[in-house]
Each structure stands twice: as structure tokens, then as C-alpha cells.
Specification:
Keywords: Isomerase, Membrane, NAD, Transmembrane, Transmembrane helix. With 488 residues, this protein is of the alpha/beta class. 46% of the residues lie in helices and 12% in strands. The protein binds the ligand O=C(O)[C@H]1O[C@H](OP(=O)(O)OP(=O)(O)OC[C@H]2O[C@@H](n3ccc(=O)[nH]c3=O)[C@H](O)[C@@H]2O)[C@H](O)[C@@H](O)[C@H]1O.
Length: 488
């Protein structure tokens, strides 16, 4: 034993003796003689009895409330980087769980597994059974609806973090529930839960769309990107590699057009360089592509990455420029435009068709259940899902102005160096070749669908009766006071 430890142990003994001596001294002073000894002995007995009774109570509690104990464990052991640790909302999910309590401990049991199997079971012959992460997010929501509509089984998972208004995510969750899709309140970094989920039903595919999005926000909260886009992806791939059913599921996941970074060749092709990311967001997506390669190589997971190009549409992400600009135009607030920025804006329905095409053609994983190594090579694919026609951001604003019937209060500035790239442009020949991907929606048409949903969801009045949302050239005062309230 090291000297310090011996010393401390000896000190401990001395302290005990000293304490015992002091207490009996006090007793002797208080009572004197034999009575003192009697009181001292009975106080020892009382102390032992109290300890025993406490132990018995703890044992009883553990037997009767095991979930409470494991819950407090899972809370205290949550990763500090987990998105769930800081940004969960407290809403209840449709499966009756809420927020952090939904981690490993609470989603289990026979009833829970039955519910997972119900939601995961396809309603058509040869239908897919898909676990969709980020199902209450923009793309995850639309993909889940589309899969369900064609008779596939879908179980969703989302941590409902507050990166943008969680009430919008809850509204998407309610709509999915009305179509028979359960969305669990859970984090992709909860590996134990993912494992139980993939053991509860024979999922054929994982559509992994949960991520920390937003190019410029990465400068404000860098760890969130590492947690969701790197650690979270690893967690999902681990669960897929070690799935308990005979066949590992195939994984289709969201990468990003941002991986092209400082690439100047255009249109962007999957064959171009992607080793010069301009933002941490892009870097984490690029890291994800390398991680996918490793899991495909070792475990024979079939993995398809999809590089999305600025996806927009109804039920979209309020943090994205088209959405926040629409809100600002309605409210009469100024918007800041980055000079000369152009984007290959891609309408959600086109992207959903691409996602479903990628799922349908994913090919099987070749690893054996339990995470044993592959029995042969499995597909590893990467596709651009863009619109193939970049549009200046100023044009996007002009279309919004027309649809909303109101001029934007524009401030044009030089693009700040915050991770943004000046333009994106997708070459989609690979996706067209392999699963018939063909974007068909113009920005004008797509934004019209978005504005239709936007005015209805936020209950914005049509003052003009001229097809536009607001009175053309309407009264500034009224516009300023126009409130937007989300439809429930
Ligand atoms: O394809 C992707 O991989 C990414 O697409 C999306 O990123 P972006 O293309 O940057 O979309 P978005 O923020 O809507 O800005 C659109 C345009 O408005 C310009 N822009 C933006 C903000 C502003 O205040 N002013 C402005 O001019 C800006 O310069 C840009 O030209 C997703 O958010 C991201 O999660 C990821 O999926």
C-alpha cells in the first residue's frame, strides 16, 4: 500500500477512536458510572438498527421502482455533448414519454415493443420497414409521410431539440401519428435505445436524417455539430451493424451539398474534391462520409449518403433563409441579403422522391447479425440531390415578394466569412441513372406551395383577394401589427 494511503488509513482509525472517545466522554460527563456504559451501548445498537432499516428501505425501493432508479442513472450519465442534455423540449410524445425520461430506461417492455412492431409493419407486400431518425424534422417528416402513404412501415425518432421552434416539430409529430406513424422522443446518441429499437422489429432500412443543420450556426454552437453529426452518426451505424435480426438494415443518410466547400468546378459532381470544407457543419458532414466508409468496409453495412442542396418547401425549417425572409416580409422587418449568393434550391417533393429511390435501390447489407464482419462487399453509395439550376438569392426574395404581395425591406451586404459558400449547383446524373431521380419543381412553383402552407399554418390573412397573401401595396401600419400565430 502506498505510504499516503497507509497514513490516511491510520488517521482514519485514529479519528474513529477519537470520535468514539469524545462521545463516551460526553456521556460520562452527562450521566456518570454504569449508566454511562448502558447509554453508550444502546446508542450503538440504535445506530446499527437505523443503518439496517435504511438498507432495507433502499432494497424495497429498488425492487418496486427499478425504472426510477435507472432513470436517475441515465440522466446523470447523459453525455454532456448530447443534444438532449441541453436542448430538449418538455412536450409529451404520443407514446406517453417525455423529454429526457425517454432515454434507455423508459422505452422498453412488451407493450412498447408491440407498438414499435405495429408502426414498423408494412401494409403492402414487400414493403419496407424503415426507422427514420429526425422524423419530426423537415425532410424526415415528409419522407415518413411518403413511405407510409405507399404502405411501408415507419417508426420515427426525434429529440425535439430547440434549435428551432419545437412546436412545429410537435405539429409534424401529430400529423404523423394521425397517419399511424409513431415518433419516439429520443436521441440518436442513446445507443442502448437504438439497439432495443432495432431488436424490436425486423427493420429493413434506417433513414438517418437527424442532424444539427445550419451552416452559419456552427460558429455559435460547434459542439452540437460534433455531437449530432459525428457522434450521433456513429451511434446509428453501431446500432445498425449490431442489429439483432438476421439481416442488418441498409442505411441511407443525409450528407450535404456543403461538403463541396471551396470547390470551384461546376456543376458539383460526386467525383469532385470534397476535402476543403468551408464550415464546421460541412466538415462534420464530410467526416460522416468517411465514417460511413469505415462501417461499410468493416461490417458490410449497405450505406447510401445523399448530398441535399438547400431543400425548401411546406413544413420547412424556420432557420433557413426563404422561411425567415417570408416571416420578416410579413412582419415588415428588414432582411439581410448576401451579395451575389446563389443556390440550387431544391423542392422537398423532389428530394423525397430521391430519398425513396435511394431506399428502394439500397441493396442489402452483408454483415451477419450481432455485428460480425461482412460476408462480402456491400453497397457504398453517394448521390447529389439538387435541382440543377442555381438561382440568385435576390431572385428567391423577388418571388416571395410577389407571392406575399409585399416588398421586402432589403439590406444587401458582402457575404461574411462565416462558413457560407457563394454558390451551389448539382450534377445529378448518378442519381438519375441509379434510381431515376429527376427534379421537376421550379423555384416559383415550390415557393408558391410553401407560401400556401405558410399563410395557412401561421393564420396570415389574405387582405388583397388578388391571389397574393397581403394587400398589394397595403398599409404599412397594418402590416407591422400583423401577428403570426401557428395553427394548432
Ligand atoms: O445544401 C446544404 O447543404 C445546406 O443547405 C442549407 O444551407 P444554405 O444553402 O446556406 O441555406 P440557407 O441558410 O437557407 O441560405 C440560403 C441562401 O441565402 C443566403 N442568405 C442566408 C442568410 C441570410 O441572412 N442572408 C442570405 O443572403 C445564403 O448565403 C444562401 O445563399 C441548409 O440550411 C443547411 O442545413 C444545408 O443542408
Amino acid at each position: 500500500m502506498p505510504a499516503g494511503v497507509v497514513d490516511a488509513a491510520a488517521k482514519g482509525v485514529r479519528l474513529d477512536r477519537h470520535a468514539a472517545g469524545a462521545s463516551s466522554l460526553l456521556l460520562r460527563r452527562a450521566s456518570g458510572g454504569n449508566k454511562q456504559l448502558l447509554v453508550s451501548a444502546s446508542s450503538h445498537l440504535l445506530f446499527r438498527a437505523t443503518v439496517l432499516a435504511t438498507l432495507a428501505l433502499v432494497l424495497l425501493f429498488a425492487v418496486h421502482y427499478p425504472s426510477l432508479l435507472s432513470h436517475s442513472f441515465s440522466l446523470s450519465s447523459a453525455s454532456p455533448h448530447s443534444p438532449s442534455s441541453s436542448r430538449r423540449s418538455s412536450h409529451r410524445s404520443l407514446l406517453g414519454r417525455s423529454g429526457p425520461s425517454s432515454s434507455s430506461s423508459s422505452y422498453s417492455g412488451a407493450a412498447w415493443e408491440r407498438e414499435i412492431r405495429r408502426s414498423a409493419t408494412p401494409r403492402r407486400a414487400d414493403g419496407l420497414s424503415v426507422l427514420v431518425t429526425g422524423a419530426a424534422g423537415f425532410v424526415g417528416f415528409h419522407c415518413s409521410l411518403a413511405l407510409r402513404a405507399r404502405g411501408d412501415g415507419v417508426v420515427g425518432l426525434d429529440n425535439f431539440n430547440a434549435y428551432y421552434d419545437p412546436s412545429l416539430k410537435r405539429a409534424r409529430q401529430r400529423l404523423l401519428a394521425s397517419r399511424g406513424v409513431s415518433v419516439l422522443d429520443a436521441d440518436i446518441n442513446d445507443g442502448a435505445l437504438l439497439h432495443r429499437l432495432l431488436s424490436a422489429a425486423p427493420f429493413t432500412h434506417v433513414l438517418h436524417l437527424a442532424a444539427q443543420a445550419g451552416v452559419r450556426h456552427a460558429m455559435r454552437d460547434p459542439q452540437a455539430y460534433v455531437s449530432s453529426n459525428v457522434a450521433g452518426l456513429v451511434s446509428v451505424l453501431e446500432a445498425a451493424a449490431h442489429a439483432q435480426y438476421q439481416q442488418q438494415p441498409a442505411v441511407v443518410w443525409a450528407s450535404s451539398s456543403s461538403v463541396y466547400g471551396l470547390n470551384t468546378e461546376s456543376p458539383f459532381s460526386e467525383d469532385h474534391r470534397t476535402d476543403r470544407p468551408a464550415s464546421l457543419y460541412a466538415a462534420t458532414k464530410k467526416a460522416g462520409e468517411a465514417i460511413a466508409h469505415a462501417y461499410n468496409h468493416i461490417y458490410g453495412l449497405s450505406i447510401t449518403g445523399l448530398r441535399f442542396f438547400t431543400v425548401y418547401g411546406p413544413w420547412g425549417r424556420p432557420d433557413m433563409a426563404y422561411f425567415s425572409f417570408a416571416r420578416s416580409i410579413v412582419a415588415g422587418d428588414p432582411i439581410t441579403l448576401f451579395r451575389d449568393a446563389r443556390r440550387d434550391f431544391t423542392y422537398i417533393d423532389d428530394v423525397v422522391r430521391g430519398c425513396l429511390g435511394a431506399l428502394d435501390t439500397a441493396g442489402k447489407s452483408t454483415g451477419v447479425s450481432g455485428g460480425r464482419k461482412k460476408s462480402g462487399p456491400a453497397p457504398l453509395r453517394m448521390y447529389n440531390l439538387g435541382n440543377t439550376s442555381p438561382v440568385p438569392v435576390t431572385r428567391m426574395v423577388a418571388v416571395l415578394e410577389k407571392l406575399l404581395g409585399k416588398k421586402a425591406n432589403k439590406r444587401v451586404v458582402t457575404m461574411p466569412s462565416n462558413g457560407d459558400v457563394p454558390f451551389t449547383h448539382a450534377n445529378v446524373t448518378h442519381a438519375a441513372r441509379d434510381f431515376g431521380y429527376r427534379p421537376t419543381t421550379s423555384l416559383e412553383e415550390g415557393l408558391r406551395h410553401f407560401v400556401d402552407w405558410f399563410v395557412q399554418y401561421y393564420k396570415i390573412e389574405n387582405k388583397g383577394g388578388n391571389g397574393n397573401v397581403l394587400a398589394a401595396g397595403g398599409k404599412t401600419g397594418k402590416r407591422k401589427s400583423m401577428a403570426m400565430s401557428a395553427a394548432s
